[in-house]
Amino acid sequence: MNTLLYTLDGNHPLQQQLVQKLSVRPGRFDFHQFPDGETYLRVYDNCIDKQAIILCSLNQPNNKVMPLLILLNTLRQQGIKRVGLIAPYLAYMRQDKQFNSGEAVSSRYFAELLSNQFDWLVTVDPHLHRYHSLDEIYQLENRALFAAPVIAKWIIQNVSMPLLVGPDNESEQWVAKVAQLANAPYIILTKHRHGDRNVEVSVPEVQRWLQHTPVLVDDIISTGHTMQATIGHLLDKSMSAPVCIGTHGIFADNSYERLMASGAKEIVTSNSILHFSNQIDLSSLIAESVSGLI
Amino acid sequence: MNTLLYTLDGNHPLQQQLVQKLSVRPGRFDFHQFPDGETYLRVYDNCIDKQAIILCSLNQPNNKVMPLLILLNTLRQQGIKRVGLIAPYLAYMRQDKQFNSGEAVSSRYFAELLSNQFDWLVTVDPHLHRYHSLDEIYQLENRALFAAPVIAKWIIQNVSMPLLVGPDNESEQWVAKVAQLANAPYIILTKHRHGDRNVEVSVPEVQRWLQHTPVLVDDIISTGHTMQATIGHLLDKSMSAPVCIGTHGIFADNSYERLMASGAKEIVTSNSILHFSNQIDLSSLIAESVSGLI
């Protein structure tokens, strides 16, 4: 069965490589907004007896949902039998419980919306905080891929004497894994509370690491507040300017500029979301997984 | 059973009147966008054994869909049994067939999305062009209300010697109906084609109507191009500056300013979509219908 790959965010950096690595054809379509804000969309392919992949990173998700559902439904109407979604960045994973009564658990509603419409889903480093697996909320065939190996590979190739740094105990599992894969040491910052407002953050064995390049790794760089604070703590202790790595560079509230101004040596992201900081290519990771689904 | 009315577009002009006329309580909730573009929402009401109405006009629909679905799902999660939607303006009614192969018939997908989630739907003057009834695409209890009587009432009270004017034969049915209800005469402009590019538009019996105030009526004023052309034809024949009435004032592409600049005497809309041209109140019409559904 022939497979067509439709890229909803037009210039997505993964498009061309996925087309090559999966040996699929790029789907041809266009869409635009009518003056009244509705989406017009037209598919130009013969879809009979074909299957489709839609590639769309779901950062800034609200405005993408209607075009995404319209594309999906148009493909089905044109005869496509099976439609999968590659969302290198998956949205609405954070509101995973009611912190206060009456709060929306939007992760569940969003999961239901996509599950009802797509046949399969592939994503990278979804924000699985309280959920252990996408299967807890997504009722469709899915793959949650880990970027840690490709991040580790980038560190090995680009950072001399890397020292992975986790900002708190919660981050240890993830930081330890990247450190192991990069064959590098890691430390976790510790907080000492002196009274209500006085929290001291210390860097363990700081003298031992002064020659290393600190590397901060997170799944998402959104507002970047935690990373920004961590940079401050490291520089306070006279450590070198750290390299900041995020799988997904959301960069809300000008966080790229803020992190650089705070003393980051460099900020690096994967190409899950188009940004000039993209240095880590996810195409092989995604292609390998998707080839088992089409 | 108690009923709560949640207004998604915060300052919707119909909110207060519907709360009074339906004897319901306004629902209390807030929502905002996280820096990453996701919607946070929280409901503050005790929802057990209650039903809910969501009031939301669906102009500029794409950005409203996620907040709408999140509110609906949060209400259900909080125990609401039945949720209806009052969408004074209903979106995605125009793409009702494939004009070209491969085109999205978005009216069907949007109808399916809402039908799967809501228990009932009330709207005013939906753009039923090729569909004869909402039931052709909406699979839920629904009411498509006609604004013609309230528009006619406004004309009677505000326009001296009104003459309803339809821009083409397609408009005759609608124009004739408003004219009859307003107890006013109407004319339909006719086109005479002289060769490929030379189309003359004539006003029938123009001498007879020079003392009248032309009234142009349409369901939606979107880009307003047809209305703008009609104003031009009337002024060309030395008729008075026309009053332009639209049930729904979308006013895309600065059409309000363009229509006024083209010589409209006044532009009047219903309060389906908040705009300073709102002069026609739909609250009684809607309340009467909704009271049969709750």
Question: What's the helix and strand layout?
Answer:
Two copies of one chain form a homodimer.
Chain A (H helix, E strand, L loop, with lengths): L1 E6 L7 H8 L2 E2 L2 E5 L5 E5 L6 E6 L6 H16 L5 E5 L18 H10 L4 E5 L16 E5 L2 H11 L3 E5 L5 H10 L4 E3 L1 E5 L3 E5 L10 E9 L3 H12 L6 E7 L5 H7 L4 E5 L7 E3 L2 H8 L4
Parallel strand pairs in A: 1-2, 1-5, 5-6, 6-7, 7-8, 9-10, 9-13, 13-14, 14-15, 15-16
Antiparallel strand pairs in A: 3-4, 11-12
Helix pairs in contact in A: 1-8, 4-5
Tell me about this structure:
2 copies of one chain form a homodimer. Chain A is α/β, with parallel strands linked by helices and 294 residues long. Chain A folds into 2 domains: 3-146 and 282-290, 3-Layer(aba) Sandwich (Rossmann fold); 148-271, Rossmann fold (3-Layer(aba) Sandwich), CATH 3.40.50.2020. In chain A, 28% of the residues lie in helices and 28% in strands. Chain A has a 6-stranded parallel sheet, sandwiched between helices. The first copy, chain A, has a 6-stranded parallel sheet with strand order 10-9-13-14-15-16, sandwiched between helices. The first copy, chain A, has a two-stranded antiparallel sheet with strand order 3-4. In chain A, helix 4 (148-158) packs across helix 5. The radius of gyration of chain A is 21 Å and the shape is elongated. The N and C termini of chain A lie close together (9 Å). In chain A, 49% of the residues are buried.
